[in-house]
Amino acid sequence: MTEHIQYSPDKDALVLLDQRYLPNREEWFECRTTDDICFALVVMVVRGAPAIGVTAAYGCYLAGREVQGMDGDWKANLNAKLDQIEKARPTAVNLRWAVREMRRVWQEAGDVSLDALLTVWLARAREIHEDDIAMCEAIGRFGGALMDDGDTIMTHCNAGALATAGYGTALGVVRGAVDQGKKVSVIANETRPFLQGARLTAYELHKDGIPVKVACDNACALLMKRGLVDKVVVGADRIAANGDAVNKIGTFGVAIMAQRFGIPFYVAAPVYTIDPETPTGDDVPIEDRDPREVTHIGDHRIPPEGVEVYNLAFDPTPNELITGIITEKGVLYPPYTEAIRKLFDK
Ligand code: MRU
Fold first, then answer.
1. How many Å lie between the centroid of ligand 1 and the Cα of residue 160?
2. Fewer Cβ neighbours under 10 Å: the N or C end of the chain?
3. CB of 237 closer than 6 A to ligand 1?
């Protein structure tokens, strides 16, 4: 797949494949300022936890470029812009991680000029970008080994190349299985209301020639009951210290159904998605998004005028429903509090 996050030195811009319009149109969105970056994150030109992190890292660099042209104390101006980026979306820990990482690099660089900081930051953003692809490929190798030839894998939302720098986490597991010579196919849950499954997961798997069928979110139980699902693999926006995994709204329900039908339920995510500062999934801030995403299909309003809706974007899946957490360092199994503690002690 085309790289959907590209830093262009010629344009001095971060160029993003605009995911709002996929699969119908491949349009590119250019970010030059902090406001552009925050807009792209909030309206989901770019989305998916690791892709958000990579975008935020380049965003810090672009914020520095913007500050170069501003009056006043550059350090204070820059810090205010970093705060703005960090707050763009609350749930994916990767956003906070990326901004903190850039602050750490700044601190480590000491009393440097803004020009010198920008050189170091651009290099670090590029490294974060490249590392993400390598981490996804490692997740794919570990996860691919857990899949069996002939499996049909259900996934929810899009945890694919479009949600990362490339290759994907949950879809990285699918790609890993394919790379290991296994014939697997995917059921992509539609994933209301932004339709990451119907639009994005279907788009990228179809493009790669991996068999994919889209199902309504509410078909899950019947498909499982009919024996049409062998494994579930999903991504995560944040994994708490006890292994509870927060992912796209609806994931919790899929996990409950998978347990009901004895289907293995895996979460695939890089280690930095695990947040040891957050004790349980219930402690993770859940993004409450624009109601219009639920009320409208295109310009057409579905519920009667005046009726309110919920648009909570994520839910925590309790650790006891998770068969394994597939990371780039290997697969974690219950009890997760212990497995995660050991991982971080290393
Ligand atoms: O609101 P989104 O589209 O950013 O939500 C994305 C998800 O929930 C993904 O499953 C998660 O970020 C993992 S991406 C590898």
1. 9
2. C
3. yes
